[in-house]
Amino acid sequence: MKVLGIETSCDETGVAIYDEKQGLIANQLYTQISLHADYGGVVPELASRDHIRKTAPLIQAALAEANLSAQDIDGVAYTCGPGLAGALLVGSMIARSLAYAWNVPALGVHHMEGHLLAPMLEERVPAFPFLALLVSGGHTQLIRVNGVGDYQLLGESIDDAAGEAFDKTAKLLGLDYPGGAALSRLAEKGNPDRFVFPRPMTDRPGLDFSFSGLKTFAANTVAQHPQQDEQTRCDIAYAFQAAVVDTLAIKCQRALHDTGLKRLVIAGGVSANKQLRQRLGELMTKLGGEVFYPAPQFCTDNGAMIAYAGFLRLKAGEQTGLAVEVRLRWRMSELAKIS
Ligand code: KG4
Ligand code: ZN
């Protein structure tokens, strides 16, 4: 079975083909980052218009990359939520129409399930059950994963997502959107002893997160140093990143302790962060467990994770009807279990 996957939920157009026997056989990505950079964030209308321009050519490129023609595709998977409504509608409409024309099943995929399953595209895959830390621009969640579609939410951010806090703090430091990766590069030159930021909600029980106070703390620190010399920017970046990484690690350790799980999966854009990977790697070594990540190009949005999640569900016989519906708010616990 060969599945075409289409991701258009935000500012990346991703198209990929997953083959049951050979794995990932095509992966095309176009990022709109430069389009939105002048506005300091994603402009939904511009995002939709750009997906319209890019999706069909990327599908053609993916078919060429895999040396396939349209007749070889057995199903079409597309992100139908959560995300920006217009952007989701573009990918969903194109995917649904192609599936109709090609007379193959279509499947609307949950974007965060795509992220969650992205580590399965690697050679070393985690066995179920495991704990997943999903850290993206829109979500921060700790989930007990018993199997595909069997998700128990243990904790989540009550305000900003980790990636959102990275991006807002990066903006305060004068970095372009999305500034998470650039902030972590600044942090490499930071002095660890200059500033100490709080570790929000770690002093009380529970597995929820809150990152908006950290961003305010960063804003106040920036305001106290109006010159913003290079070293100060690096020091603030360091302190901010250390606080986020520490907070995530403390909550992961707590969730692993509570659940007795020994495997940890980290996915979503922020899982590309080197400090986070190092810190959680050390934690799992200390606990005698294992940690799994997607390859860096599959941490941020991509079509491969949608093709793969779609393949699993199409293979299990699931499919989405002809009416195109996008789901802006959609909890992963509502997804069907796959045995
Ligand atoms: O998963 P993703 O591509 O999109 C959403 O589903 O939201 O995540 C994007 C987020 C952005 O906030 C971006 O700044 C952050 O991931 N990000 C990083 C790094 N790379 C991407 N944050 C910290 N360190 C990184 N290396
Ligand atoms: Zn994403």
TrEMBL record:
Its main location: cytoplasm. Fe cation binds at residues 111, 115, 301. Its EC number is 2.3.1.234. GO terms for cellular component: cytoplasm. Binds 1 Fe(2+) ion per subunit. Residues 24-308 form the Gcp-like domain. This is tRNA N6-adenosine threonylcarbamoyltransferase.
